[in-house]
Amino acid sequence: MGKYIVKRILLLIPTILLVCVIVFALMRLIPMDAVAVLQNKLSASGNYVDEDYVRALLGLDKPAIQQFFIWIADVLRGDLGDSFFDHTTVNQILASKLPVTLELGILSLIFTNLISIPLGLFCAAHQDSISDYTIRVISTILIAMPVFWIATLVLIYPNLWWGWAPTVTYTPIWEAPIENLKMFILPALLSAMGQAGIQMRTIRTMTLEVMRQDYIRTAWAKGVPERRVMTHYAFRNALIPIITMIGGSVSMMIGGNVVMENIFNIPGLGSAMVSALNSRDYPIVQGCVLVLALFVMVINLIVDIAYKWIDPRVQLD
Hints:
Shape: globular
Largest sheet: none
Helix content: over 70%
Number of strands: 0
Radius of gyration: 24 Å
Distance between the termini: 9 Å
């Protein structure tokens, strides 16, 4: 186990380097760089700025390869750079935005599992019943409907019909926990719906497959209570593919809540990245993507280690 963990950690190094190359290159391929964006803003206000001076000031006058190695050297020192426009460091932006994104992602993950696990087990225990069909149809609808569309409807129609609108003013959880949760619960629940539908169907399928095994029939024959058969025998032995899906859910919810953050005015990494992309603020985008990629890789490592904990028969090479 120890050798496997060390090997996986070492493999993170080239993977992170590849992520750095890709995000750096893609940012430079976007039409209009930060200097052009700044010049357009100043021209609209009747001001003029020398392009060569600004390009040198931002460090964009050097060849792209040299810019890349300068950035990598700073990253290795723990310095992700400075924002072009906000007069602050990327480290400070991450320190303020990352907890917000993590809170939304963790709440989404909690709602996903609270919905999918009980319903998946219930459908497996009542296969082909009316309840099973109803829940599966609802889950299919949730999977099919775009989350951003539902979120937009939730913002508009309750306000038109009942004069109610969700909270869109951010309050730190350590200042007012109730007000903070009022803002986060709705987007977290909406974010969880589609993934909960997918996960519920997977749990149902894997649990039914396990329930066809001989040891499950033996447990039924011995008179083991249904709840214990479902939770202790069937669900535990179906956990490996389910854990894989939950690990993917974590990655998607932490890195994929960009839409929710922008719709509900949540000041997390997603909204910071969209704003930085619009202004071509390269250091912010590069730093955010790098941190999110590292987070996803660590989650995948934890999921692989969890396999061994769930089933000691699994061999990690």
